[in-house]
Amino acid sequence: MATGANWLLQAAATLPDTIVTKQIQPEATTFEKVVSVASGLASIALLVLAVALVPAAWNFRKSYAKVSDMLDRIYGDINPIMRHASTIADNAKMATTFSLIKTPSYCTQPMTSAPSREISAEPILRAARAGRAAARRRG
What are 124-133's pLDDT values in tens digits? Predict the structure, then answer.
């Protein structure tokens, strides 16, 4: 027993109180190495893409603002012309409606209580021509 006690005394004198252990990592497999490299390449590619897209997005924003302003100006220029064209179309519709008014087909005799009056579309057409000429002078 003396030899066992001597051995324990020697071990107690050489080992500290706290034993620190370190786990040894197993060697990475080929698949793990490939995944690690691919992950790094994907990170670098995303970084390059972000750096390239920021200036492109900024230029697109400026281009969008220019196009929007141009469309607003075009709308401001065309809106009065379209209103005028709509008025002309309404007048032409009214003129054709008045020219189509005749004695109803269900009457056997023409109406004689009121004098017959022809409605001419000429004043309306003259006004439409004057409006087109004025639009051409403005635009």
Answer: 778 888 888 8
